[in-house]
Write a structure and sequence with these properties.
The chain is α/β, with parallel strands linked by helices. The chain has three domains: 1-164, ABC-type transport auxiliary lipoprotein component (Rossmann fold), CATH 3.40.50; 166-314, Rossmann fold (3-Layer(aba) Sandwich), CATH 3.40.50; 318-426. The chain has helices at residues 7-14, 24-31, 35-46, 65-82, 90-103, 110-116, 168-186, 205-209, 212-227, 234-244, 255-262, 306-313, 317-326, 330-335, 338-371, 380-421, and strands at 54-56, 86-88, 120-129, 132-141, 147-154, 195-198, 202-203, 230-231, 266-275, 278-287, 293-302. Strands 6, 7, 8, 9, 10 and 11 form a six-stranded mixed β-sheet that branches. Strand 10 and strand 11 (293-302) form a beta hairpin. Helix 15 runs antiparallel to helix 16. The longest helix is centred in the C-terminal third of the chain and has 42 residues, at 380-421. The two termini are 40 Å apart.
């Protein structure tokens, strides 16, 4: 257990690490990180926090600069995935604290910590334990300097696939977004004040055939919003593109023009290209006013399974609604929501069968009612009694048919509306 630290020592520790050279994609490829143990270690140590709200993540202490960059991005992703604590990233700390330290001749005042409003600090140090690299996490309470908890995460050797519960495409997009966020924060900017329009990346070859550009655009929009950026709605972007009569996939030249029309601070443009068994995603965040590149990110996406996921994302709301109009639950199945498909399918068809059966019963009862006549088998009293009974049954069946028909209409119509509003094309879906 480490000894408690003073706020001043804690502040100096936060700005101790320097940025690593190289992209995070190269870092993860060379470091071969298995994020599963890291995610588990983060969850374990943060369970011991005291009502955490804002968590500072200083740079990881590691002699290997490539691995350090990958670990810092992985730690940020692991904390953000919890959706419980706000995160002050290593890039933000370096931009804020290093500048303050330089101005104060490395005597950082305690007021600087207050400006950051951090209540906990999660420090990471890479240790060698019997020839095996281990990331040691330490959670420190800022106000008291007390160490609240510690946890270790084994770092897998190169080539080990991640065990984090995310698809390769989503992991790649998250990596790109975190690289862009780090670049923005390194400039001393807060991502929560940046209004960003996310354009569909340019795609060619198999990527274009699979409509991977639309899928990646939706993933980028959703992940940027989760990271804290103010993301312009895709509907507004489409309207701006129509107004300017420019291509859906923007580049660094046409992007700022669209961004200004939308009132955005920056626009995210990119491209997807083929490289053997991989798709290469390159993205750039362009400042709308100055046309400068604020940050860049890249990811390698395996081609296996990408086409099927892209196909799901690019299905349209109107097509989903049309399918639910034809058959209840079909639109939900088309959207990939099997649970809703089962509910609307069973409910809709069940109500329809009940309506048809009750309607058939009321019709048969009406025929029987009309056929009652006094005759050889029935005297007048018996005929009258049977007529009254059939009349009562007919009334009950007609009422039940009306109720069942109403339920059928509600379920059928509700399924159409649900398929329309929950389709992937109407909002980013994860």
């Amino acid at each position: 257990m480490l000894a408690p630290m003073s706020p001043l020592l804690l502040a100096l520790t936060l700005c101790a690490s320097a940025p690593a050279v190289g992209t995070a994609e190269d870092s993860e490829l060379r470091a071969g990180l298995d994020e599963g143990p890291l995610v588990d270690a983060v969850d374990e140590v943060l369970r011991r926090a005291r009502d955490p709200v804002r968590l500072a993540l200083p740079g990881v202490a590691d002699a290997d600069g490539v691995r350090r960059a990958a670990l810092e991005l992985a730690l940020v992703r692991a904390v953000l995935a919890r959706r419980r604590e706000q995160v002050v990233t290593p890039a933000t700390l370096r931009a804020r604290l290093n500048a303050a330290a330089e101005a104060q001749a490395l005597e950082l005042p305690a007021a600087e910590l207050g400006a950051l409003s951090c209540d906990h600090v999660l420090r990471g140090t890479v240790l060698d334990q019997g020839g095996r690299a281990v990331l040691h996490l330490t959670l420190v309470h800022v106000e008291t300097g007390e160490v609240l908890g510690e946890a270790d995460a084994a770092l897998a050797s190169a080539g080990v696939a991640t065990s984090a519960p995310a698809s390769a495409v989503r992991r790649g997009v998250e990596r790109v977004v975190e690289e862009l966020a780090a670049a923005v924060e390194a400039r001393g900017l807060d991502v929560r004040t940046q209004r960003v329009a996310v354009a569909a990346p340019r795609a060619d070859g198999a990527a274009a055939a699979a409509r991977l550009d639309r899928f990646v655009q939706a993933e980028l929009s959703a992940t940027m919003a989760e990271r804290g950026f103010l993301v312009v709605e895709r509907a507004a972007l489409a309207a701006a593109l129509d107004q300017l009569a420019v291509a859906t996939a923007l580049d660094e030249g046409s992007g700022p023009k669209v961004g200004k029309l939308l009132g955005a601070d920056a626009i995210l443009v990119g491209a997807i290209s083929e490289a053997g068994a991989l798709f290469l995603l390159d993205a750039r965040l362009i400042d709308v006013e100055r046309g400068l590149v604020l940050g860049a990110g890249s990811a390698r996406l395996p081609r296996a399974g990408v086409v099927a996921r892209a196909d799901v994302e690019t299905r349209t709301p109107l097509e989903a609604a049309a399918r639910s109009l034809v058959a209840p639950g079909w639109g939900q199945a088309y959207n990939g929501d099997d649970a809703k498909a089962l509910v609307f399918g069973v409910g809709g068809y069940g109500a329809l069968v009940a309506t048809v059966a009750l309607a058939a019963g009321s019709i048969a009862t009406s025929y029987a009612y009309d056929a009652v006549r006094p005759g050889s088998n029935l005297d007048a009293a018996q005929a009258a009694e049977r007529t009254r009974a059939l009349y009562a049954w007919r009334g009950a069946l007609v009422a039940a048919t009306a109720v069942a028909g109403g339920v059928t209409t509600v379920l059928w119509g509700g399924g159409i509306v649900d398929a329309l509003v929950s389709a992937p094309g109407s909002a980013p879906v994860r």
